[in-house]
Amino acid sequence: MALVVVLVTGGSGAVGHLVVRTLREHGHRAVVLSRQPGTGADWRRGDLASGKGLREAVVGVGAIVHAGSATAEFTRTRATDVEGTRRLLEAARLEGVGHLVYISIVGMEGVAYPYYRAKLAAEAIVRQGSVPWTILRTTQFHTLMEFFLAAFSRLPGLMTVPFGWRFQPVDPSEVATRLAEVATGAPAGLLPDFGGPEVRDFRSLAESWRRARGVRKGLVNLPLPFRFSRQFAAGRLLCPDHRNGQITFEHYLARKYPVLS
Ligand SMILES: NC(=O)c1ccc[n+]([C@@H]2O[C@H](COP(=O)([O-])OP(=O)(O)OC[C@H]3O[C@@H](n4cnc5c(N)ncnc54)[C@H](OP(=O)(O)O)[C@@H]3O)[C@@H](O)[C@H]2O)c1
Question: What is the pTM of this model?
Fold first, then answer.
């Protein structure tokens, strides 16, 4: 097996850090790109939003897994995801990097959500092909389900969630395994969608989460008057014909909260 040097943007994030770990476990060299300071030759400091450090970050790299994104900084989405992807590709092209793998989202063109518009624009830039590419679109991670559920449980005494939202959550470790495999192979264009094992409504996810966390608050439906909310409920983000992951939300919770689950 040929050793590949892979730069992982977002290598400190939910899926990126697992991509780094998986690549290293398989004998490859994984280099993290982060805005934060780090130590050692395999940590490169750079900022997609300003372009600072990107030229240096791609030196000596054979492939890139591009998982860096302004997932929680919505005012920076355009600069980070759209312009940042353009800048990263330009740096990669100049360095002669042979493969860029972009992680994207199943069904997002069917949902009116500003972050998804930025992801679509970034995908389009990748598809222009200045660097040979692969795009893997996945469903929502278990970690994102938890993030949503924690946000909906902030009210004292009551947990209010949109019961009708539907997701097909997938474990980031399974996505990371796939990304590492793809990054160390040949560019393959747009891959088939990659989804979790079950289609679930948000009420049932909330019930499992409450049980696992020992949350005793009452659970109440929260109808949200937004187009994206209706589109979540309509199943636009699902790919039921692609149940690639095996780890269910309950497996994920049991691993994370072993005492109560
Ligand atoms: N979460 C999901 O359910 C899901 C589903 C499908 C696809 N995806 C896609 O997967 C990717 C990763 O998602 P995630 O949930 O793992 O994200 P995450 O945990 O929120 O991590 C985001 C990463 O992006 C990096 N980042 C943010 N702004 C940056 C900038 N200006 N320059 C350089 N790095 C920057 C952060 O690194 P530092 O803070 O260290 O700089 C961090 O490592 C995203 O593209 C997302 O759209 C996510």
Answer: 0.97
